[in-house]
Amino acid sequence: MSMDMHFSNAERAEVLTAALPYIKKYSGKIVVIKYGGNAMINEQLKQQVMEDIALLWLIGVKVVLVHGGGPEISDTMKRLGKEAVFVDGLRVTDRETVDIVQMVLAGKVNKSLVNLIQTMGGHAVGLSGIDGGIIEAKVKDERLGYVGEITKIRTQPITDLLEKNYIPVISTIASDRQGDVYNINGDTAAAFIAGALGAERLIMMTDIAGILENKDDPSTLIPQITVTEAKKLYDSGVISGGMIPKVDCCIEALEHGVNNVIIMDGRIPHSILMELLTDEGAGTMVTKG
């Protein structure tokens, strides 16, 4: 969404000065953004997300981008004639599938995001959880094959890049001491990485508006919630289905030391900037309380 030409210069200046306190608040701070799913499929949205990331980087925010790429993995598997198998909603990953996951996530998706950020004026470096041993993992559940549970996060490769003023772009695959490769849930990886970095904020981009009292009505968005309140909403069924693992990851991030976590709608243009640089915010903020 380019600036509308009806905007006078005075209005533009006003927008920028209104953002100043927020720029001061986040400049020099680490913000982890988890990106994937449907906000990734739409090319125009993808451009806007990368534009937001480049802009935050330009004003001094230390952005770490953690990404998945489920739809791309499924597409590639289909092209290669490999059926996706799910157990309890989790993708079963045999040796051949983990090769495809590595190829798609660490190769195609990762490098295309790095490339896009750079065309927007940011400096990015793509990594996978294998690089520098960032994510170490073990088998999560024998039935799921090479699906990993995180055992350790090494932040140094990430902080080294941040110190040199790059945006680390991390794909969520991992390895163990024996060199086996694992597919890791992107939300979980983002929560662990944000916690290990002591990030100021973790932003989880999803394809819903945030936590809703009525899942079919976006106007029932809950703007802010504590961990205790969130757990109550599990019991009452307000948080259900695919939202449960997302909120679990938010709670996990807070317990690992992140200040606050936002679940927001990645389908809204520039929702990241609205969240970080305006007093309105976007999505649901989860705090320790």
Structure characterization notes:
The protein is an alpha/beta fold and 289 residues long. It has one domain: Acetylglutamate kinase-like (Carbamate kinase). The protein contains nine helices and 14 strands. An eight-stranded mixed β-sheet has the order 5-8-2-1-11-13-14-12, with helices on both faces. Strand 9 and strand 10 form a beta hairpin. The model has no long low-confidence stretch (mean pLDDT 90).
What is CATH's topology name?
Carbamate kinase
Tell me the name of the CATH class: Alpha Beta
- Name the assembly state: single chain
Low-confidence stretches: none
Helix content: 40-55%
Strand order of the largest sheet: 5-8-2-1-11-13-14-12
The N- to C-terminal Cα distance equals 36 Å
User: How would you spell out the order of helices and strands?
Assistant: HEHEHEEHEEEHEEEHEEHHEHE
Helix/strand-derived category reads alpha/beta
Question: What is this entry, summarized?
Answer:
The chain is of the alpha/beta class and 289 residues long. It has helices at residues 9-26, 43-58, 70-79, 95-119, 156-163, 186-197, 227-235, 243-255, 271-277; strands at residues 30-35, 62-67, 86-87, 90-91, 124-128, 135-139, 148-153, 167-171, 173-175, 181-183, 201-206, 224-226, 260-265, 284-287.
